[in-house]
């Protein structure tokens, strides 16, 4: 909830998939978070720090710009 520092839980009865387990050499490599799982794990800005291989060129460029501004906040003003 904005300004309150907490969450409001709304359940529609259809569970969201947090991650998918794929065959892999080790457990961590086989765990693939869904979009919902990524947001739970890294927050809503996860795509900025973890750009996906399937992202559009525009999305990847925006994420790179936002990472640059995050690294040097003054760079956004130049």
Low-confidence stretches: none
Tell the overall outline: flat
Which strand order do you get reading across the main beta sheet?
1-2
| Radius of gyration, in angstroms, nearest whole number | 16 Å
The biggest sheet, with number of strands, parallel, antiparallel or mixed sense and barrel status, is: 2 strands, antiparallel
- What is the string of helix and strand elements? EHEHHH
Q: In which range does the helix fraction lie?
A: 25-40%
- Average of the residue pLDDT scores: 80
How many beta-strand elements? 2
The share of residues in extended strands comes to 5-15%
Give a verbal description of the structure.
There is one protein chain. The protein is mainly α and 78 residues long. Helix content is 40%, strand content 8%. The protein is built from four helices and two strands. It has helices at residues 27-30, 35-42, 46-49, 57-71, and strands spanning 19-21, 31-33. The protein has a two-stranded antiparallel ribbon with strand order 1-2. The chain is flat and about 45 Å long. The termini are far apart.
